[in-house]
Write a structure and sequence with these properties.
The structure holds two protein chains of two kinds.
Chain A (H helix, E strand, L loop, with lengths): L2 H11 L11 H6 L4 H24 L9 H23 L1 H7 L1 H4 L5 H11 L4 H31 L1 E2 L2 E2 L19 H18 L18
Antiparallel strand pairs in A: 1-2
Chain B lengths: L5 H10 L5 H48 L6 E6 L5 E2 L6 E3 L11 E3 L1 E9 L2 E12 L4 E9 L5 E8 L13 H4 L17 E3 L8 E3 L5 H15 L5 H12 L1
The chains are: A mainly alpha, B alpha+beta.
Chain lengths: 216, 246
C-alpha cells in the first residue's frame, strides 16, 4: 500500500476515529436509532469534514497560530450551518429526526481533530484523503450500530420490515432497549472490544503499568 | 506593501509573518467575511424552500386534526383579534403587548389571526386556533383545537420548538399530546382554568406537566391563558358562543 491509499484506508479499518480514539461518540449514540438517520448523519459529517480539512489545509500557511482554533471552528461552523440549512430545505422530515445533532457536528471532535492534527500540517490532497477516510470510518461505525439498533429495536431496515413484529401479527418482539441511547453505548463498547481483541496493540495500557505515576 | 496595485498589496499581506498583528487581524476578518457571506447566501437562498416545508407541515396538521374529528376540509377564516369579527384579509400588522398582559412572552401579537373552522351544515363542529408562546429556550408553535362547545379540547399539538431534546421536546410526543383531548379550558363561570401540574393531572382542567421541563410546562400554561384570554381569541370565541346560542 502506498502512502496515499494508506491515508485513505487506515482511518476506516485500522485507526478508526470512533473505535481507536473514541471520538465523535455523542452523535454515534444519538442518531443511530435507524439506518436512514445514520446514513444521512454520516453524509453530513463527511461533507463537513472533507471541505473543512481541504479549506484549512489550503490556507494552513497563513493561519496565525494564536487564532488557529478560532479560524478552524469558524470554517467548520459555517459548513455545518450550510448542511443544516440544506437538510431543512430538501430533507425536511429527516432534519427533524436529526434535530440538534447536525448542528452539533461543530463540536464533533473528529472534525476539529483532523483539522488540527492533520490538515494544518499536510497539503490539500492528502488532507482530503485523510478526511474522506476518517469520515468513512465514522460512517462505518454509525451504519453498523444503526443497522443493529433498527433491526432489533423495530424489526425494520431503512423502514422496510425485515422481522415482522408481533404488533403486525409476526413473531418478533422488538427489543425496546435498542431504541434507547444506552444500547448504542453497549454496542459501541462491544465494537471497541472486538477491534481491540483483533488488534491488541490498540488497547490502552492498564493503569498499573504507569510505573510510579499517579493514576489519571 | 505601500503600492497602489491591489495584487501586490495582497502579496505583501500574504508575505507578512503569521504572528504580525496586521496579518492576524486580516486573516480573522477575511475568514469571518467569507464565512458570513456563505452562511447568509445559503440562508437567504433556501428560505423559500424551508418556509414551504413548514407551511406544508402545518397544513398537514390542520387537515389531520379535522380528519380525526369527523372529516371535511376546514375553512380558513381571518379574525380581527381585538373585536373577534371576521375580516377579509390579513393586513400583516402587529400590536405591542404591555408587559403585564404579555403572558406568553410574545412582545407583539398580530392584529388579524388565521383560524380554521370545521362546520357541518353551518353548525360549528371544530375550531383550530394557532397558538404560540415562550417555553424554556424557544418559541413553541402549535395548534389548539376546540370542540363545538368551545370549551372542550379536541387536540393540542406543537409542531415547532427548540426545547431541550429528550426533555422539553416531549411536548411533541403523541403520548403527551394524547393527555389533552377532553380537558376543559374554562370552568362554569367562563374563567380560564386549564393548567399543567406536575404528577397529578387528574382534574378536568389539569394536564400532567413534563417532569424536568418545568419552564416548558409553565410556558404552555401561560400561552393557553393568553390565547384563550381577552388579548388572544377571547373576543372571537365569545362571538362564536353568542352566535351558537341564538
Amino acid at each position: 500500500m502506498n502512502d496515499r491509499t494508506r491515508t485513505l484506508i487506515d482511518p476506516i479499518f485500522v485507526a478508526n476515529p470512533v473505535t481507536l480514539q473514541v471520538l465523535g461518540i455523542c452523535s454515534a449514540l444519538a442518531v443511530t436509532t435507524s439506518l436512514a438517520t445514520s446514513l444521512v448523519m454520516s453524509a453530513a459529517l463527511i461533507f463537513v469534514l472533507t471541505l473543512a480539512s481541504s479549506i484549512i489545509s489550503l490556507i494552513r500557511n497563513h493561519i496565525p497560530r494564536s487564532i488557529r482554533l478560532i479560524v478552524q471552528i469558524t470554517i467548520i461552523a459555517s459548513l455545518v450551518i450550510v448542511v443544516d440549512q440544506v437538510l431543512q430545505a430538501y430533507l425536511f422530515a429527516m432534519s427533524k429526526l436529526l434535530s440538534v445533532f447536525v448542528g452539533l457536528i461543530v463540536t464533533n471532535c473528529i472534525v476539529l481533530g483532523r483539522a488540527e492534527g492533520f490538515a494544518m500540517h499536510n497539503p490539500p490532497g492528502a488532507s482530503l484523503l485523510d478526511a474522506i477516510g476518517n469520515g468513512l470510518g465514522y460512517a462505518l461505525i454509525l451504519v453498523v450500530i444503526g443497522t443493529v439498533r433498527e433491526l432489533l429495536g423495530a424489526g425494520t431496515l431503512m423502514g422496510v420490515t425485515v422481522l415482522p413484529t408481533t404488533a403486525q401479527g409476526g413473531w418478533f418482539t422488538p427489543w425496546g432497549l435498542m431504541a434507547l441511547p444506552p444500547s448504542a453505548f453497549f454496542l459501541l463498547g462491544l465494537l471497541v472490544w472486538a477491534v481491540r481483541a483483533i488488534r491488541p496493540e490498540q488497547a490502552e495500557p492498564l493503569a498499573e503499568q504507569f510505573d510510579g505515576e499517579a493514576p489519571r | 506593501m505601500a503600492s497602489a496595485n491591489p495584487l501586490s498589496w495582497w502579496r505583501g499581506f500574504l508575505a507578512l509573518p503569521n504572528d504580525a498583528p496586521a496579518k492576524t487581524l486580516g486573516v480573522a476578518l477575511l475568514v469571518a467575511l467569507v464565512c458570513s457571506l456563505v452562511v447568509s447566501i445559503t440562508a437567504v437562498a433556501l428560505k423559500p424552500l424551508k418556509d414551504a416545508n413548514r407551511l406544508a407541515e402545518s397544513a398537514a396538521h390542520i387537515t389531520g386534526i379535522a380528519e380525526i374529528m369527523g372529516g371535511g376540509l376546514p375553512d380558513t377564516r381571518f379574525v380581527d383579534l381585538a373585536t373577534g369579527a371576521y375580516v377579509d384579509r390579513d393586513p400583516g400588522t402587529r400590536t405591542d403587548l404591555p408587559r403585564e398582559r404579555d403572558l406568553a412572552g410574545l412582545n407583539r401579537r398580530e392584529d388579524v389571526a388565521t383560524v380554521f373552522e370545521l362546520r357541518d351544515g353551518g353548525k360549528l363542529k371544530l375550531v383550530v386556533l394557532p397558538v404560540r408562546g415562550t417555553g424554556y429556550q424557544s418559541t413553541l408553535k402549535g395548534y389548539l383545537a376546540l370542540k363545538a362547545d368551545l370549551n372542550t379540547v379536541a387536540a393540542l399539538i406543537f409542531y415547532e420548538h427548540e426545547e431541550t431534546p429528550g426533555i422539553g421536546s416531549r411536548i411533541e410526543d403523541s403520548a403527551w399530546q394524547g393527555l389533552w383531548p377532553g380537558k376543559q379550558v374554562a370552568d362554569a363561570e367562563g374563567v380560564i382554568r386549564i393548567e399543567l401540574v406536575k404528577g397529578a393531572g387528574a382534574g378536568v382542567h389539569q394536564v400532567d406537566g413534563i417532569s424536568g421541563a418545568t419552564r416548558t410546562s409553565t410556558g404552555i400554561t401561560k400561552l393557553m391563558r393568553f390565547w384563550l384570554g381577552p388579548d388572544g381569541y377571547g373576543p372571537y370565541l365569545e362571538r362564536l358562543r353568542t352566535e351558537a346560542g341564538r
